[in-house]
Specification:
Order of helices and strands: HHHHHHHHHHH
Structural class: mainly alpha
Strand content: under 5%
Number of helices: 11
Helix content: 55-70%
Oligomer: single chain
Distance between the termini: 34 Å
């Protein structure tokens, strides 16, 4: 079983656990999610990890596309774009504005208890990849504090997690209302990422009220 499949079934992106933390995060940031379409986005945004061989690499970064296609088919292009832009790295690589779903998704990660997150991510094998990627990204980013950088370079998962949650909490507070994301640094992948024409790209001048 591939790591992406395991993550969705019982790992960090578990489809029966993560959406609930996302709903709580959305409530804290933007009020209770009364719109049923938000709940579909909460449930579907990470389904693209199924059958992926990595989480943050060449394959993993395209995980946004499946959920976006489904949301587009169900609710229209703006909801597809909203769902696709839940990944700040994917959004930045493809010249998109990260969406509010992205901000809530990051807060959901922060809200997930360490005692739950670490065993789940370790059981699927994704934890080691996350730790490596976080080190790569903080090396090229000036927005990590010295304490966070030291924690991210720790070989101890819980210490590493504290550093990443501290940074992520500050990112959420800084970007909860949108704006330009200067914090996110994309690292080179095996091949360039290209935006999919079916992900609900907006017409010039169109506004996305969900972003």
């Amino acid at each position: 079983m591939r790591v992406g499949t395991k993550s969705v079934l019982y790992g960090a992106h578990c489809v029966v656990v993560h959406p609930w933390f996302l709903a709580v995060a959305w409530s804290r940031l933007y009020g209770f999610p009364w719109d049923i379409r938000l709940w579909f986005a909460f449930a579907l945004h990470d389904v693209g990890y199924f059958f992926k061989n990595d989480m943050d690499g060449l394959e993993g970064e395209t995980h946004v596309e499946l959920g976006a296609r489904i949301m587009t088919a169900l609710f229209g292009e703006s909801w597809g774009a909203f769902t696709a832009a839940h990944s700040r790295y994917w959004a930045k690589r493809n010249g998109r504005q990260f969406s509010r779903l992205c901000v809530a998704d990051k807060l959901a990660f922060v809200l997930t208890p360490d005692w739950l997150y670490v065993p789940m991510a370790r059981a699927t094998g994704e934890l080691s990849e996350y730790m490596l990627r976080a080190k790569e990204r903080q090396a090229g980013c000036e927005y990590f504090t010295d304490v966070e950088s030291a924690q991210l370079n720790s070989p101890k998962p819980r210490e590493w997690l504290r550093g990443l949650k501290s940074y992520t909490s500050r990112w959420v507070e800084e970007h909860r209302d949108g704006g330009v994301d200067h914090w996110t640094v994309t690292v080179p992948l095996a091949a360039p990422q290209v935006a999919d024409a079916h992900l609900g790209a907006r017409r010039p001048g169109a506004r996305n009220r969900l972003a």
